[in-house]
Design goal:
By secondary structure, the protein is mainly β. Helices cover 11% and strands 37% of the residues.
């Protein structure tokens, strides 16, 4: 049949919220475990190279390309699955909540501002063609075309005949193409629209990609087959048994009645069967099979015990018609008043939010990267994953089932551009079908996964009748898990708020008395962030009504872009090449954009952990160690289902001069899917005997010269020159060591949190040092005692960015050795994970390269640090703990937008501080660092250190 052009229809399907699909098959469970689908001969992958044509707008698309005689020989090739923007067709766009087209629901083709990408690209269209070979044996079967994900809306043709249409980008779409194919080669054509009315419900804080971004498969099914199954396991009150129910849906797509069928459910050595005498042509029916599991092994994130099961359809002779393998987890969820329980225990969700994101393939994430994500989460002691803000690729859920993560599965429903709790879409009946479709597709695909503990209606979306309809749909399709929603609290079993200060969270949780409380988003991990994480969890562990919280978010959403502007390189490789940089919003010249606001992960785009990953690992650890007054170490177990004796507890006593440290760890006693035996799931350090810092009185016994006696006029000694408060020259072995003076310096570059909170404006006065005196005393030819005093002349001073000094050494001082907290970067409000010790590393590892250049690389509680070049070493030793950083660039150089733009290698910039302003960690749009991690500019401050050098030349 011929397909009419879109221009001939009054209302286009892709601008009509009441059209969510045409000729789509009903949603159903993922019938076969994703990891085992490649083994199934009935599942034929259509992934690979397709022919492709990209058009700027619908009017320019090749209207008749689906015809079998349409010449595509000159078309480009494109990889499926994949986003077309990552394969150099059009531009990726990043916005947080602004629609990238003119907002006028349901239209997506209105006229936007002239500088917007959409002005000249009024809904780009991708036209795809591939060929399917159908064998003689396959032809009599039921042939199902399965699209795991296509964004945003698409039509399908087979051999020139239109099969159907779909939107709801992040859920599968299936079409029965049995009647459209022939033996041999068949032409499959797919027309994808970048935007549709569905885009109004997909206004998500992420890159706005498009295309066939998840796998495409051909399922070769028997005419009578298993079309769906839903398996539940309900434990009794004492967990001594669990009632298992398998609700199996059968479908007869043939023209004849199917007779004498048997459905079998096989689990834990039991086989339960149900007979079906007949099933009419073109009909469906349900068969329920029940059994009991005695003394069941319960599923939890700590102990993800699974029961493999099989669902099988057999003919009258007992021969298998169809067979699927899956797994079952036995668990029970209860809300008792304000307390959320799993298997009778008050669990805590140590959570994170995750996007499906790959730095080269965009929204398509390959299996290896999915597994890497889940493995790294488990190693970070994360036990809760929110699928932000859409159903994720199916393998993620299988991995969460097997590795052990609680999941809040979220419908693809966000209309943030209309406002949180908006009525325009949330309370308009014409949008109800679209909302409900997203709820149904979510639950029907994923409800067999034991890892799922909450269904979310969406995020920052509408309120009203459509939210209520979504909730009712979810509860009807799966009553075993509570619904969750942030935008209409009437529809949520959990009270949610987000990005609260710790004390605000405590107050809100105390005020809410009708349900449990959680924060679906907190600790916005943008750039150098994640301060004060421990403060949240001290409160969460103390309050049984707070379920937990989920960090925003898992991985920086950077894209690997060649520096020279050449084509993007589409592949599964995660590693950034030397000639590339991590791009964010605006780096493709697209408007509108929200810049770097999507660079907020605890790991990078390449999944390399940031320093704050390790802070998460520490704060989220399941065991807490406390040292009693008698020296005994007490272990507090925050696990719900794991005994302490299931870990090996190890300890080491370390001696550094006078200081003695006790390092204690809890280690895996056996290999796990996510880590090997011996992996430390919890660590702590105790100081048994403190460090003996040098005493000024002892140092002064050997002092040679007070260089500051005549500093106003300048003092020039044999090795040192002092002018005012600055050490301007330091010559060792005939070599000048100072590329710039050692001088008081109270300023520091902002990090992302501070930038949004007006840090530079509020603290601008500290760019000029004031009310300070520095004393220099030569202890010997190559050593100086440096003392700095600050006495505020008034009491109207803002907080200080830092209190300390800086100097610049020659560029080849690139080896670092120090005794302090490490090995990774740490700050006053983010240092619990960094243990005291002696560390050695190159300067490149001592500094931290964030995707957006900013303050970085501090080490706290430093006793001493050495920076070396071949033959020479400069040593800084505090008379009290120091905070130190060293970079191969200056503070002033951190203005560029990307690391490769920062000028490097002229010197080594060293900051020597008593203290530094904390990084903050509540949000990145206004909230400030907690007061206890700031430096009061109205209080006096003093510190001292010894600067010395040695030479082997």
């Amino acid at each position: 049949m011929a397909s009419p052009t879109l221009a001939q229809t009054t209302t286009r399907d892709w601008e009509n919220p009441e059209v969510v699909g045409i000729n789509k098959l009903p949603y159903h469970a993922t019938l076969q475990l994703p990891s085992r689908q490649a083994e199934c001969k009935e599942i034929v992958s259509l992934d690979g190279q397709w022919r492709f044509h990209w058009s700027r707008n619908p009017e320019e698309r090749p209207v008749d390309f689906y015809r079998t005689d349409y010449d595509i020989s000159q078309w480009d090739s494109i990889t499926v699955p994949g986003c077309w923007q990552m394969q150099n067709f059009g531009k990726p766009i990043y916005t947080n909540s602004k629609y990238p087209f003119q907002r006028n629901a349901p239209s997506v083709t209105g006229e936007p501002p002239q500088d917007w990408y959409a002005y000249d690209h009024r809904n780009p269209v991708g036209s795809y063609v591939t060929f399917i070979n159908i064998t003689r044996e396959q032809l009599p079967q039921n042939l199902i075309l399965h699209f795991a994900g296509v964004k945003s809306a698409f039509y399908v043709w087979v051999n020139g005949q239109r099969v159907g249409y779909s939107q709801n980008s992040m859920s599968p779409a299936e079409f029965d193409i049995t009647g459209y194919v022939r033996e041999g080669q068949n032409r499959l054509a797919v027309e994808v629209y970048r935007w549709s009315d569905g885009s109004y419900l997909e206004d998500i804080d992420m890159w706005r990609f498009s295309g066939i971004f998840r796998p495409v498969q051909l399922w070769v099914r028997p005419l009578t087959h298993i079309s769906d199954y839903y398996v539940t396991a309900t434990p009794n009150d004492d967990y001594s048994a669990a009632s298992v129910c398998a609700d199996v849906e059968l479908c007869n797509t043939g023209r004849k009645r199917a007779k004498d069928l048997t459905v079998a459910f096989i689990i834990d050595g039991q086989e339960v069967t149900g007979r079906l005498q007949s099933l009419a042509a073109k009909d469906t029916t349900h068969v329920q099979l029940r059994c009991q599991l005695r003394q069941p092994r319960l599923w939890s994130a700590e102990k993800p015990d699974l029961y493999p099961f099989a669902v099988e359809l057999r003919d009258r002779n007992g021969q298998t018609i169809e067979h699927f393998d899956y797994h079952l987890g036995v668990k029970r969820i209860d809300i008792v008043g304000e307390v959320f329980k799993i298997n009778g225990r008050n669990v805590k969700f140590r959570g994170v939010n995750r996007h499906d994101h790959h730095p080269r393939m965009g929204r398509y994430v390959d299996d290896a990267t999915c597994e890497l994500d889940i493995r790294l989460m488990k190693q970070a002691n994360i036990n809760f994953l929110r699928t932000t803000v859409y159903p994720h690729t199916a393998l993620i859920y299988e991995l969460c089932d097997r590795y052990g993560l609680y999941v809040m599965d979220e419908a693809c429903n966000e209309s943030h551009g209309y406002g949180i709790g908006n009525k325009e879409l949330g309370d308009d009946p014409s949008w109800q079908k679209a909302h409900v479709d997203r709820a149904a597709s979510l639950v029907l695909r994923d409800r067999n996964h034991p890892s799922i503990v909450l269904w979310s209606l969406g995020n920052e979306a509408g309120a009203g009748i459509n939210a209520e309809a979504m909730r009712d749909t979810i509860v009807r399709l799966d009553p075993t898990r509570p619904p969750f929603y942030d935008s209409d609290r009437r529809c949520s079993a959990i009270y949610d708020d987000s990005y609260l200060y710790p004390d605000e969270m405590k107050r809100v949780a105390e005020r809410v008395t009708d349900r449990p409380f959680m924060m679906r988003e907190y600790c916005h991990a943008m750039g150098n962030s994640m301060g004060n994480l421990q403060e949240y969890w001290d409160i969460i562990y103390a309050d049984s009504t707070i379920i937990g919280a989920a960090i925003w978010d898992w991985a920086d959403q950077g894209l690997a872009k060649p520096i020279d502007g050449s084509s993007l390189r589409y592949s599964a490789a995660l590693t950034l090449q030397p000639d590339e940089f991590w791009a964010y919003g605006g780096d493709f010249g697209e408007k509108p954009n929200d810049g770097r606001f999507l660079i907020n992960g605890i790991v990078g785009p390449d999944r390399k952990p940031h320093p704050h990953y390790y802070e998460v690992q520490h704060v989220y650890q399941p065991l807490h160690f406390e040292r009693g007054d008698d020296g005994t170490v007490h272990i507090i177990n925050r696990d719900c289902f794991t005994d302490i004796n299931e870990y090996d507890i190890t300890y080491d006593t370390l001696h550094y001069g006078s200081e003695t440290l006790l390092n204690i760890a809890a280690r895996l006693r056996r290999d796990m899917p996510w880590a090997r035996k011996g992996f430390a799931v919890a660590r702590e350090q105790f100081v048994l005997t403190p460090y003996s810092f040098p005493a000024k009185a002892d140092l002064m016994k050997h002092a040679k010269t007070d260089l500051t006696q005549h500093a106003g006029a300048g003092v020039k000694g044999r090795s040192f020159t002092v002018s005012g408060n600055a050490l301007t020259s330091w010559i060792v072995g005939g070599c000048e060591l100072l590329q710039a003076p050692l001088e008081p310096y109270f300023w520091k570059p902002e990090n992302d949190n501070q930038s949004a909170a007006g840090f530079a404006r509020r603290t601008a006065m500290w760019k000029e040092v004031r009310d300070v005196e520095v004393h220099y005393t030569a202890l010997d030819e190559h050593s100086i005692l440096v003392e700095m005093d600050y006495q505020p002349a008034s009491q109207d001073r803002p907080v200080m960015p830092k209190f300390g000094m800086r100097m610049r050494l020659p560029a080849d001082f690139t080896q670092v050795r120090y005794y302090g907290r490490g090995p990774w970067e740490n700050y006053p409000d983010r240092k619990r994970s960094a243990l005291l010790g002696e560390y050695t590393m190159p300067l490149s590892d001592f500094q931290t390269e964030y995707i957006h250049p900013q303050d970085n690389g501090k080490r706290c509680d430093v006793r001493w640090i050495e920076l070396s070049q071949p033959g020479r070493t400069v040593r800084i030793e505090g008379l009290q703990p120091l905070c130190v950083s060293a970079w191969d660039y200056g503070d002033e150089d951190l203005g560029p937008l990307h690391p490769h733009e920062v000028p490097r290698g002229r010197f080594v910039n060293v900051n020597i501080d008593l203290n530094v302003h904390g990084v903050g960690g509540t949000d990145t749009w206004g909230k400030r660092t907690l007061p206890q991690y700031t430096i009061d500019g109205n209080q006096p401050h003093h510190f001292a250190f010894v600067l010395s050098a040695k030479t082997d030349i």
